[in-house]
């Protein structure tokens, strides 16, 4: 028993101190073996899946491939995905073992991916390449795609760089991203870079401009109505992101950037800015607005590319409106992302200082988890009551907007389908509104990577079909282009 306890401590230490995902996986697998959880991963029956039906569908897919029956394979694949997607999304599948889930999940996804590639590569009677490409695009649109959403967090938001780097290194970084406040800076830095530029960004984080904060003096702050210098923040954003419009960023990187901003007027609605809804808006002005925490930075008027001027000029966008921190009303714009970009799976990196202490993950239970949920519910109830009273008052003064903002912050959803969150360490709160030292920068990035590793198996599985759709569509597009060239040459 003593030997087992010592081994467990050593393995747990290796897990906690892992410097890369390979080291983490090795320690996680060793701990799973010690706890008998590797045996669970090999079990024939888990109680969480319809195992017999899944195996039947896998057998049918294989038979269709052997017979070369692409039409029937399509029907089997459609039925199988429809029947089993809910089970495969069950987070309980990833709450048992550290190193992954039951092997049947991987075997089923293997069968689906092989079948999709077979349909892509083999002829369908009376179906041209162009028609097949349309079929895949339509199917991909129905199925949906994953999105990564980065919350606010002030200095804690540097942790998002570690989260995104861990995903990038495993080929799992979604092309659709959203950010608010500090998350907007990180998302903007990623979505304004092409693949080579992004590889350099992740490889050399010491080159990042980190001095976003400069406190104003007391007299200057009272006169200005905000505590920090917005010009310093703008310098930080411009250095790390440049000054491109949303459309220009999309055309350069191939990634879809979404930035949340909140209105200063109660009659105005929060906005999700991207190349579809606001293509000419400048990314740096949107990020600046999304970082404008009330009392810390002043509200921002958005700017857009001037269509009548040169490429470097800009004009005010909606000049009568000003915008503040996207976290106030839309830290995670889940529904708007789903509607605009057909998102079916949300990966959330949560680092908001006022949210992190109250997060209760799916795999957490007990008194602590209950207390977190109770505290959030109590705060929301009290703010809702206060808001109702101020709305009934004939002289609400300045208190109503403050309560409305606080109510919006407590009532919104802060979690997605797969959640990665900043560790709740009280000592780090002393750093939340300060520029990081080189050591702090490395520490925050490492925390982000370490928090992501336990979620990678789930992310890999639950985004695998979307990535298979991307590969098939790219392959068919290449085939169609080749056919067009051959036709032209004849």
TrEMBL record:
SUPFAM superfamilies from the UniProt entry: FabD/lysophospholipase-like
Alphabetical GO biological process terms: lipid catabolic process
Gene3D superfamilies noted in UniProt: Cytosolic phospholipase A2 catalytic domain
Record key words, sorted: Hydrolase, Lipid degradation, Lipid metabolism, Membrane, Transmembrane, Transmembrane helix
Active-site residues, Swiss-Prot/TrEMBL: 181 (nucleophile), 325 (proton acceptor)
UniProt motif (GXSXG) ranges: 179-183
Top-level lineage group: Bacteria
Transmembrane segments: 147-168
Domain PNPLA: 148-338
InterPro entries on file: Acyl_Trfase/lysoPLipase (IPR016035), NTE (IPR050301), PNPLA_dom (IPR002641), Triacylglycerol_lipase_N (IPR021771)
Entry GO MF terms: triacylglycerol lipase activity
Entry protein name: Putative acylesterase/phospholipase RssA, containd patatin domain
The organism of origin for this protein: Marinobacter subterrani
